[in-house]
């Protein structure tokens, strides 16, 4: 609920609008009712402002070029035809031409369609495509903003689709950490904390758990896959710069969720160079019991099943389901020759049935490269004892792998 005040009213009139309505819709409502509202950016001064949001169509009348303009914060019904010389939006004009060219090149792939330039109007199909593309761009930008508002780590998240008209996923909610299903409790308080003056050299938390410190001085993982990571926790005396606090600081690299051009849906690529053996991201989702995972596995299609991640470090009681709730890792594709490797991590929760899952680079990854991990290596890191094989629900259907690696095993499960 929000309040908007008509400029000339001294008394307060409360307006009710649905909670989840978008900023654009609020601005549209506000302008339509001629109401100002500081918190959504509509003031007396800009109440009647007109800013071009995107261009929808093109025509030539009496040798004059016109563009159909969608105005920002105004509904489609107020779109107007404006002469080219009135438009001060070179980038949007460029976008319009690019979209038109892309559409034509796509159409021409199939059949030879020659379209005369300087036509007096656009074909309706082209204008429709340009508007859909503009709307998609806005929706993806809005989703990108939302992801960055929700994430609590340093690296930025970008979203890009230059491939098709797919918009943001409809049934996906960004979370930063495990979301336990009702009845499952994640004890987020360690029972032990170290009191080292230097966690790198002293007998620290890993030693207490009977394992080696996982990292070297350059924050790279130095233990073999399959070995657990025990990081310093909230009970430890050491500060945030302790060399044994890596996964808990979250993703440091800026990543991009992008639409793949080889039919693998969304994927994730890095926008910066990733050092070898460094932490890239955590795999999070709903924590459910393995029985619940069996049940969901029966309901999910092939794609849904690939989001089920068995926590089989020491037991097989729990599964992480990242189908609806997850972070960037939800969008990371499988490869039989991956550049990310899975590790079990214990920080504030020392319950060995519920490790956190961290993905580390196996080699240097160039900026722009797609990130992948081996879906069959989930958990144990050992294909032969893979828990997927024990699960009748997940065994029912096999999904063909399209990773393209020389060593591709042919199937995702
Ligand atoms: Zn320590
Ligand atoms: Zn410690
Ligand atoms: Zn420490
Ligand atoms: Zn493969």
UniProtKB/TrEMBL annotation:
Domain SET: 253-376
Stretches assigned to the Pre-SET domain: 192-250
First-level EC class: transferase
Superkingdom assignment: Eukaryota
Span of domain Post-SET: 397-413
Enzyme Commission identifier(s): 2.1.1.355
Catalytic activity: L-lysyl(9)-[histone H3] + 3 S-adenosyl-L-methionine = N(6),N(6),N(6)-trimethyl-L-lysyl(9)-[histone H3] + 3 S-adenosyl-L-homocysteine + 3 H(+)
Pfam families in UniProt: Chromo (PF00385), Pre-SET (PF05033), SET (PF00856)
Domain called Chromo: residue spans: 50-108
UniProt KW keywords: Cell cycle, Centromere, Chromatin regulator, Chromosome, Differentiation, Metal-binding, Methyltransferase, Nucleus, Repressor, S-adenosyl-L-methionine, Transcription, Transcription regulation, Transferase, Zinc
Keyword Transmembrane: no
Protein location: Chromosome, Centromere; Nucleus
Family recorded in the similarity comment: Belongs to the class V-like SAM-binding methyltransferase superfamily. Histone-lysine methyltransferase family. Suvar3-9 subfamily.
PANTHER family: HISTONE-LYSINE N-METHYLTRANSFERASE SUV39H (PTHR46223), HISTONE-LYSINE N-METHYLTRANSFERASE SUV39H2 (PTHR46223:SF2)
Protein name: Histone-lysine N-methyltransferase
Taxonomic path: Eukaryota, Metazoa, Chordata, Craniata, Vertebrata
Gene expressing this chain: SUV39H2
